[in-house]
Amino acid sequence: MGYKPKAPAVMASPNVIPMxxxxxxxxxxxxxxxxxxxxxxxxxxxxANNAQDMQDADKDDAIIVAVTRDGHMxxxxxxxxxxxxxxxVKDLLANRLDKTVFVRSDQRAKYGEVVKAVDEVRSAGVDxxxxxxxxxxSKSGAPAAPPxxxxx
Length: 152
What we know:
Strand order of the largest sheet: 4-3-2-5-6
Distance between the termini: 95 Å
Number of helices: 3
Order of helices and strands: HEEEEHEHEE
CATH class of the domain at 47-135: Alpha Beta
Strand content: 15-25%
Radius of gyration: 28 Å
Largest sheet: 5 strands, mixed
């Protein structure tokens, strides 16, 4: 009698472990990429010690005008000419109650270019303009004072 190899029983359940590994890798990739998908154009904003928090600027429908250091203007992520800003902002504000527009500019942008952008935004009938800056990272503006002698 010859030995006849027996075929293993057919597995009815699918192997889920490789799929779970793939899902975890995709999840990690999305977690890393999502913060990089910034709204609008990234500019090196000026830093301020007494910056005011403007949570409205983080909303998805916030109107943000950006001025780059070479003087280009962007409305959200689309480049616009200076003379188009007023009409485009007017269109965006048409059915809104909150007529706030935020201006973010590169800290090396020419002051005159930023003023022109703000002027165009104002002529669109905006109630409030928020100038976006970055908060300084240090805890306080002044360096810590040395301890008085004999404090040990």
